[in-house]
Each structure stands twice: as structure tokens, then as C-alpha cells.
Amino acid sequence: RSVYDGEEHGRFMEKLEARIRNHDREIEKMCNFHYQGFVDSITELLKVRGEAQKLKNQVTDTNRKLQNEGKELILAMEELRQCRLQQRNISATVDKLTLCLPVLEMYSKLREQMKSKRHYPALKTLEHLEHTFLPQVSHYRFCKVMVDNIPRLRQEIRELSMSDLKDFLESIRKHSDRIGETAMKQAQQQRNLDNIVSQQPRISGGKKSKKEFSASSELEVKNTSPMSEQDSGILDVEDEDEEEEVPGAQDLVDFSPVYRCLHIYSVLGARETFESYYRKQRRKQARLVLQPPSNMHETLDGYRKYFNQIVGFFVVEDHILHTTQGLVNRAYIDELWEMALSKTIAALRTHSSYCSDPSLVLDLKNLIVLFADTLQGYGFPVNQLFDMLLEIQEQYSETLLKKWAGVFRTILDSDNYSPIPVSDEEVYRKIVGQFPFQDAELEKQPFPKKFPFSEFVPKVYSQIKEFIYACLKFSEDLHLSSTEVDDMIRKSTNLLLTRTLSNCLQNVIKRKNVGLTELVQIIINTTHLEKSCKFLEEFITNITNVLPETVHTTKLYGTTTFKDARHAAEEEIYTNLNQKIDQFLQLADYDWMAPEPGSRASDYLVDLIGFLRSTFTVFTHLPPSVAFCAGVPDECPFVLQGKVAQTACMSACKHLSTSLLQLLLEAEVRQLTLGALHQFNLDVEECEQFARSGPVPGFQGDTLQLAFIDLRQV
After folding, report:
1. Quick one: where's region Disordered (predicted)?
2. Angle ∠(409,410,411) on CA atoms, nearest 5
């Protein structure tokens, strides 16, 4: 390195060549020294070559002979070597096949299990294959193929089990109504059984109670392995007679697909994924189930199918809750139920508002009670449903009022407003049985005889009782106290009396073609109905077992209703009399310029006084509180209180006096003769004579004559 780094290359080369020349001289000296020995050695080697050639020929000849002699032996040895090699290969093959055959058998078993949809056993087989068998033969190519296929097989098992779960979810979605129908039938049977037991506590046996059903269902669930290899779906159950045992709701469903899929995902470490998917899908199904059909309100079957689907959904979820660990929890169930409860109540409020048939509303109420009792049996809170039923009760009451308004109108329109004639004891007792009427004087009279009221009195009374029964039907199974039921019935009955019946009576009274006979008969009828209100009070007390003296008990307002109707009828009587008077006065034709008066009162006034006299004279022939109306057919007797007759008579006289005064003071009468005034005076004297004659008893002194005093003074 120092030579290359320095500048002495020439010098180094000179020294090197000098050194080479020294070595060449030394080699030349040595060769010259050993030359003779070299020549001798060459001579000896030539001799050795001749001998070696001879030896080679001998060896070649010996080898030829040996080869000829050993050919057969070589063939035999080669055959022996091949046999030994085959034997060794066979032994090795047997050993390797002994290791490979279980792997192949296990893989074949895996494919068979997957083909038969036995996914959970297939997953277990795959686990054994991967961790136990394949490591022993991992160096073979087919094993490497199997190892590469294991993730794909796991994914395939996962997808197939998920497919079974989807089929199961679709199946229970389609069959939710059948599951719910079965559960509600079971609840109905249990309620009937409870009623029978409560009525006949000594009777034992019969059908299984709900607890027994639950116990048997749980036992069946425990005996059913989640690893069941049956297909998913709903088990077919044929329709059974009503007398036969209704199968438990869980007995209709094969839950093994859920169990299998849950275990498979748990083994694969994807349990949370499975739980999330299951809950998400069931929430979607819940929203579909809770969406009511648009025409649900038209028939009871629409409501029944809607309730069946909801019950079926929650029966399945309740069963999943109690037979799996953590797939669904109580918080998830409660959340679903809260959503279902709010949507169900909203749907029922909307659709029930369209119901105008009280029978349909009552059937709907019974269906809601059964729906609530069924779900309550599975541990779901249903207080809001019963609160909503109280809202529907108000609607039910409104539909009843509309229905009974039509019933009352029919009764009032078809009535002849004449006292009911009875020809024998049987008819008499029948009417007395319908309406609480007692009259010792009437009972003593011989047949035929007449009740003072017309047919609409017992009919209206009976219909009021029917209305009370209809209200009572709705209160059944609502878990209300006797006081609450009593209050509900009394409030509805008050609405019937003060609004519905009152309006119907007012409409009859205000009809244009109603006559005095009908009006007075209405007064008589309402008087008897007013007296019957205490019997209605007793009737309600008997069916609710709540005494009227109880605090906060609502009183019936029937008395006010019938009094108002009676007053309206009285006012209508006064109006009708005045209208009749006006009709007579329209016939008045005074000649205010007549030179001489006539010999007697005007003809129209004589006829008017005759009408009034015939109308009121008959009152004098009756007891103080009873009168018969004249001026109408004789076969139409009716009762009228004396005060009404007096008021009617006074009203008629005042109206007659005012009308005559208006005739005299009309603006068109600009002058009149003394003869015309005398004629008018004769008419006034006729009126005063009528007043003095006392057409209606009970007036004191000249009270009735005072009605004409202003006219007399003018």
C-alpha cells in the first residue's frame, strides 16, 4: 500500500526483477544437481508401464469373467431391491393413510352435516378437524386446501344459520295472529275457569290453569335441546273443537332455529352481532304489527286480527326472554311494550271513534279486556289499556244515547196518546209488571178499564232499564269498584234522561200537528214517569249494590226532565188554545158604520164561547186533580191537573180580551157608529158572562172577570 501510495514504483520493479533472476539461478542449480536421478526414474517408470499393462489385461479378463458370472445375481438382487422398496413404501403409505383417513372422514362428515342443515354439529366437527386432526397431516397439499377452506366453511355455516333464522322470523311474522289467537283462547279459558271456580269453589279438576300451562311449557322447553337438528318454522296444529284443550301458545312454535343460530354465533365469537341483528329485525316486525289496517274499525274481526298479531309477537318475545340468556333482556322487552302500548292506544282511539254501533263498541271492549288480560298473564303492565277503556266508555255511552234516541223517537211516533185499555187480568198484570203503577181505585174497577197513561210510558220505562243494563255490560271486567260502576251508570242514565229523552219529548211537543189531546196526555205520561224515577234509583241500587245514601253517589235528574217536558206541554196547550181563539177571531166581520146594533152577540163569538165552554165545563165533573178535555172525541179521556186547567182558562180569557181590544183600536177603524159600539158591547157582555159562569172551578171571586176589565173600560 505504501508502494502505491508513494512514488517509488520503478525502484520496486527493479528490485522485484532482481529477485526473480536470483530464484531462476537457484532453480537451474538444483535441476543440474538432480538430473541423473531424473533419468533413472524415467527408465524405471517405463519398465513399470509394461508390467502395469499386463496387470490391466489380467484385471480386464477377470472382470469380464466376473461380470458374466454375476449377471443373474445382479438381476435377482435388483428384484429384491425393488420388492424391499415397495414394501417400505407400502408401510409408509399405510402409516400416512392411518393419519389421513380420520381427517377425510371428519371432512366428509362435515359436508354431510352441512348438506342436512345440521349447522351446530357441523361447526363442532369443524372445530375438531381444525385443532385436532389437521395439525397431524398439515404437510399434505389436500390438508392445506382444507385449512384454506376452513374460514369459508365457517362463513358458510354462519350464513346458512342466519338464513334459517330469517326463515324463522318470516314464519313467526306470518303466523303471529295464529299464535296470538291461541294465547287469547287460552286466557279466555282461564278466565272462564276462574269464573267457574269462584262460583263453585268445591269443584276441582277440569282444564289446566295458566300456571300449569306455563309449567308444562317450561318443562317442554327444557327438554328441547337448543342443538335440535329439526327445520325451523311453525308447527302445524289443526283446528280443535271448543271443548278440547287449546294448546299452549309456545307449543305452536319451534324455537330451535333461534337457539342453534345463537349457539353458532356464540362459538364464532359474534354473539353481539347476532343479538343486534335479532333485536333490529324484531323491532321492524313490531312496527309492522302495530300498524293497523285502514278499515279495522269496520268489523270486529279487524280488531281481533290486530290484537292477535300483537299478542303473538309478545308471546314469542316473552318465551325468548325466559329460554335464552341475554338474547333479549327485560329493558328491551319493556321498551318494545311501551312503544306498542302507545301505538295501540293511539290506533284504538282513532278507529274506535268511527264506531257508531254500540254492539260493536261493546264487543270491542270485551276484546280489549281479553287482550289486556292475556298480556297481563305474561307479565306486561296494562293499566293504560283499562284507562283507555274508560275513555271508550264515554264514546260507548254516546253511541247508546244515539241508538236510544232512535228507539224513543219510534216509541213516541207510534204512540196513540190514549189511555191504555185493558180487557182482562193478564193484560193488566203484564203492564203493571212493565211499569211500577199502583192504584187501589183502578184495581177495584171491573174490566174493561183503562190506565191513565198511554203505551209509551211502560215502553219508555222498559227502555230506560235496558239502557241501564247496556251500561252495566260495559262495566264488567273493568276492575272497577261498585261505587265507580254505580257512578258510571248514573251519569249515563242522567244524560239519557236530560238530553236524549228530553229532546225527544220536546220534539213531540213542538210538532205542528200535535193536538190538545196529545199534549194533555203527554202531561199525564210525564207525571207518571216522574213518579217512577225513585223506582229507577232502586233498580240501579239493586244491580250495583251501592246505597243511594253513599257519599258522592250521583242522583238521577229524571224529575227535572219530566217537569220540563210537562211545562213545555202546558205552554204548548196555552199556545194552541190561543191559536184556536185567533182562528175564530179571523171570522170577525164588524161593520163599524152600522146604524143599529144586532139583537145578540156576533155569531163567531158565540161559537168561540161555545168552544171554550165545552172545553172547560167538563173539568167540573172530575175530581180536583183530574179533568177530561171536551172539544175532542169522547173516547179520548186524559188526566189534567186543576192548576193547568185554571191557567189555560185564564190565558184564553186574557188572550181573547187583548185580541178584541186590538180589533177595536185598529188604525183602520177611523170612525164608528153608536150602533156598532153597542154590537161590540154585546160581544163583550157575552165574554163577561162566560167568565162569571166559572168554566173552571177554583177561581176566587171575580178573578176570571178581571181579564176583561180593560176591555170593558175602553
Report:
1. 187-233
2. 90
Amino acid at 469: Y
Query: Is the CB of residue 437 less than 8 Å from the CB of residue 451?
Result: yes
CA–CA distance, 283 with 279 (Å, rounded to integer) = 6
264 in Cβ contact with 156 (< 8 Å): no
Spatial CB neighbours of 572, under 8 Å, sequence gap ≥ 6: 509, 510, 514, 519
User: What grid cell was written down for 474?
Assistant: 260495559
What's the helix, strand, coil split of the chain in %, to 5?
Answer: 75, 0, 25
Contact of 263 with 226, CB cutoff 8 Å: yes
Among 100-104, 375-379, 566-570, which stretch is predicted with the lowest mean pLDDT?
A: 100-104
Q: Does residue 237 sit in helix, strand or coil?
A: coil
Using one digit for the tens of pLDDT, what is the confidence trace for 211-242? 343 433 333 333 333 333 334 444 444 344 44
Q: What stretches of 545-673 show up as alpha helix (H) in DSSP? A: 558-585, 603-617, 642-664
Closest listed residue to residue 608, CA positions, set 586, 634, 632: 586
List b or e across 189-209, with b for residues whose CB sees 16 or more CB atoms inside 10 angstroms: bbbeeeeeeeeeeeeeeebbe
Q: Specify the 3-state DSSP secondary structure of 554.
A: coil
| SS3 readout for 329-362 | CHHHHHHHHHHHHHHHHHHHHHHHCCCCCHHHHH
CA distance 652 to 608: 11
339/345 Cα distance (integer angstroms): 10
**Structure pTM?**
0.65
Q: How confident is the model at residue 82 (pLDDT cuts 50, 70, 90)?
A: very high
Residue 224 CB contacts under 8 Å (≥ 6 apart), including other chains = 255, 256
Q: Which residues make Cβ contacts (< 8 Å) with residue 392, sequence separation at least 6?
A: 348, 352, 361, 364, 365, 368
Question: What is the DSSP secondary-structure string of 87-101?
Answer: HHHHHHHHHHHHHHH
Distances (CA, A) of 247 to 254, 311, 314: 14, 15, 17
Name the amino acid, one letter, at 190: Q
What distance separates the 2 farthest-apart alpha carbons in the chain? 219
C-alpha cell at 582: 185567533
* Nearest Cα to Cα of residue 569 among 627, 648, 498: 648
The set of cell numbers assigned to 639 is: 188526566
For residues 403 and 415, what is the distance between their CA atoms, to the nearest angstrom? 19
Provide the angle, in degrees to the nearest 10, between the axes of the packed helices 558-585 and 603-617.
150
The rounded mean pLDDT for the chain is: 79
User: Three cell numbers at 213?
Assistant: 300451562
Q: Given the C-alpha cell 302507545, which residue does it identify? A: 342
Q: Which has the closest alpha carbon to 333: 378, 300, 394? A: 378
Rounded distance between C-alpha atoms, residue 154 and residue 119, angstroms: 10
Pairing relationship of beta strands 449-450 and 233-234 according to DSSP bridges: unpaired
DSSP 233: E
Q: Using an 8 Å Cβ cutoff, are 540 and 468 in contact?
A: yes
Q: Which residues contact 87 (CB under 8 A, 6 or more apart)?
A: none
Q: Which residue has the higher pLDDT, 669 or 635?
A: 669
DSSP, collapsed to helix, strand or coil, labels residue 709 as: helix
